[in-house]
Amino acid sequence: MTIGIGMYVAACMENVKALTHRSDFEMQFLTLPLFPFVNINENERFILAKITGNLGTSTKNLFAKIKKEYCGMIYGDSKNSDSADKEKSAFRQLHRTLNKLEKMKLIRREKRGKNIMLNSTPLGSLISMHGNREK
Question: Which of 34, 51, 99, 118 has fewest C-beta within 10 Å?
Fold first, then answer.
């Protein structure tokens, strides 16, 4: 299987299919998975970095850490609702983000006893490290 690196990077940036042939003798093509670094926003990257930095953290512990360090992301700009509603809304937003990261295979959930722990996958760690070097 041969593919030009430039062609693969261009396919990732443009979010189009990348095809490569299996061998010179067979005309079967494989669809290559696209590297998802383009589709991660700043908040998702921040959450991914928190999960990568803390091996085996729970959702509640993660929420507490994010709440201390990055209130703007969690609570947004709405000032009209009470704090209990803001807390519930922020926790739901965190769950949506975690579901998206899990769907992209950047994190995984592991059950340990009664708790569900969050860990980054090798791809998630790679993307998290790349994002930290950019800043």
Answer: 99
